[in-house]
Each structure stands twice: as structure tokens, then as C-alpha cells.
């Protein structure tokens, strides 16, 4: 018999920490190779880690809610002999690099076992279990050996929301499907409304300020909560802060912008709405913008580049991994659509819908966060006309898209009402100059001015 230490792997691209969401094993459990051990939440996704050994659990080196450093001990196993170890032959998932430790030869594959097509799959939550309710006076178990079933069922965004407001989610009764604790359950608890209250019920007035006159949002927590709130800088917030600081102080930013008549884009979208060939696919202005930017990259490949300072090289890529900045309950993340330049109108719309849905649900995979080459940030849905964004690290340009709104526009020397949008592009001036950025932006504008013709030509 020998002990083997399983170090927390880097399941993303240079991640430094992850939070333990739920243990699926206890000390003393006998586990098999690739058996799910624990759910961890990183700045980018919630990941289920499988066991790299077959043996007995000796030590769990953290509790639910603890933030663990990458490459630090997570679990200690006792295995017979050398013990079976996971290899790429056992699990065909992207390898995750971890430093070696004494007597350890395995490399954790970290994303779960593969399906018949060889695609790595992950189980994010157990099905059919109800949330565990612990009375406020009870002493909830906090040891690392707490059974996995004791963890209340919820989603990472809801757990983060509860934690930010100082609420123990284990004290709640889930009203969602199969006892899932929802954001509404947390909001009801914060406002003092019983969990059994229907979802549309409004909390009783608690002060002069209880409802926003703009959106009807319950503001009781604002009126009655503490005068100051401190939010730990970790997870998505830390990832965003680190990335933006690195970008802002390492890449010389420059920008170009212009106003565009997008009336024909709006007309095209209206004409295609409800077409049987689209099925349930929903088209949006962002779909057309994405196609336009990918088309511009095909004509001007230099925009789809990065600056390799270490080797003194500009890396120009011939495929566009299109990042879409997504506003989620966990914060801003930028997953990307692989080979977006190869997609047509319908495929692009479907890819965007899946990307946004997964981002908001907190199920974006680490692979979907890696390798972005160009980015779009869409501030239009917030009613904003324009933005000047910071470049995601390792990319050459980011396009900001303002709202599509009616405005006076001159056509044939006459002032008419047209749909107009503001486009702004930030770029890394080390490898992208103003002329190239201007040509790219003008190309995107021409595409939006007459998308039907651009799609036919493309």
C-alpha cells in the first residue's frame, strides 16, 4: 500500500485557484478509476474532477466553500501497490498539466470520461435530490468528510449571489425543480418574505425606498442592508481584474469608431423572422455583426492577430475564434465560438445562443474560454450608444457595438429616419495600425449597410 497525493489541476488556461463546490466522496470511501470526486468552480466554469487513482480516500484537503490554490494537495489516496492510474488511454480528454509529486505518474484528465464520439463530458449537478434545509440554530457540518448529498442544490451564480449578500444558502428551501435553490429564493430570504410566497409576490414595504421606479425591482435589501459591502476579489471578478490590468498596461491601445446606417440589417432580420427554415433559431443584430467581423478578418487577416513579445513575432491566425463578451450573474466572461469564420447565418445564431445560455448557467467549459482571436462586446441591449473597450489579453482587436436605434440620417441630401448604430474598435497598436483598423471597421460598416448583398457575395 502507498499514499498518492492528487494536486488540484489547472483546468483552464493559467488559472491559479478554484473553489470547492461539492464533495462527492468522504474519507474512507473506496473509489474507482475516473469516479467523480468533487465539483470545483473556477473563474471560467464549474468542473467535475474524476479520480486519477483507484483506492481509498485518506484525506480531503478542503471544505465546501474553500478556495484552493492550483497545484496544492486536494486529496490523498491510499492505493494498493503502485495503484491504477489515469492515463490518456483511460480517458480521452484534453490533458491538464500538473506538477509531478513523489510516486505519482498520473496526469489528471480533469473533464470527465468521454462519450462514444470521444467528446469529454461533465456532470454538473446531481439530479433528483432535494435541497437540504438546516435550521439557523443547527450546527451545520463543515468538515471535509461531509457527505456530498448534504450540499444544497443550486447553481454557481446563485451561490455567489447569496455569498455576496452574507446569506447561508444551506438555510434555504429550494422552490425550483427537484428542490433547486433559485435566485428568487435568495431574494425572498433577503427581503424577509417566506419561501412559500408565490414568485410574483412583493416584499412588504420596509422603508421609504422599496421599489425602483425604473424597472420595478425590489430594493428592500438596498434600503435595509449594511451601508457598506465588501466583495472578495476572486473567481470571475479576479480573473477580469487581472486580465484587464495586464492588457491595459502591456498593450498600447488605440481606437477608431464610426456611425453606421443599419436599416437594411433590421429589415433583413424582420423579413427572416418566423421563416420555417429557421425553426426555433432566433436571429439578432449581433448575429449579423459577428458575420461581418469574420468576413472582415478574411479580407484583412492582420486584424486577427496577437503580439508575441517573448519571441518578437506577430502571430496571424487563419481561423477566427470569436469571443462574445457575456454579462452573467457571476460577472463578465468572454467565451468564444471556434472557427466562427466557417459558419453561415443560421449556424452563427445557434452558436451564439448556446454560448450565451451556457455562460449564464455557469457551465462554460475551460476550452470555450481559450484561444480567443477577435472579440465583440455588445452594449446595445443596455441602451448604450457606444463604448471604448479594453482588449482581452492575447488578441489584436475588440469591436464594441452600440444600440440599433432610430435617428435622423441624410439620404440623397434629405433628412430621413433610419436605424443607426455606433461601432468602435480598440486595437493593439503594436501590430495593428490605424489604417488596417479603419479598413476593417469600414468593411464591417458596409456589411451592415447591405447585409443581404454581403452574404450573397460571401
CATH superfamily of the domain at 244-457: Chloramphenicol acetyltransferase-like domain
The biggest beta sheet is recorded as:
7 strands, mixed
Q: Could you tell me how far the N terminus lies from the C terminus, measured between alpha carbons in angstroms? A: 64 Å
What's the tally of helices? 9
Gyration radius over CA: 25 Å
Averaged pLDDT, please?
Answer: 77
Q: What is the CATH C-level name of the domain at 244-457?
A: Alpha Beta
CATH-defined fold name of the domain at 244-457 = Chloramphenicol Acetyltransferase
Task: Describe it.
With 458 residues, the chain is of the alpha+beta class. The protein has a domain at 244-457: Chloramphenicol acetyltransferase-like domain (Chloramphenicol Acetyltransferase, 2-Layer Sandwich), CATH 3.30.559. It is built from nine helices and 19 strands. The longest helix has 17 residues, at 345-361.
Describe the structure in brief:
By secondary structure, the protein is an alpha+beta fold.
Write the layout of secondary structure elements.
Blueprint: E1 2-7, E2 17-23, E3 30-31, E4 36-41, E5 46-50, E6 55-60, E7 67-69, E8 73-79, H1 156-164, H2 183-191, H3 220-224, H4 235-250, E9 253-261, H5 263-272, H6 285-299, E10 305-308, E11 313-316, E12 322-324, E13 326-328, E14 331-333, E15 336-337, H7 345-361, E16 374-378, E17 397-401, E18 405-411, E19 414-428, H8 434-449, H9 451-457
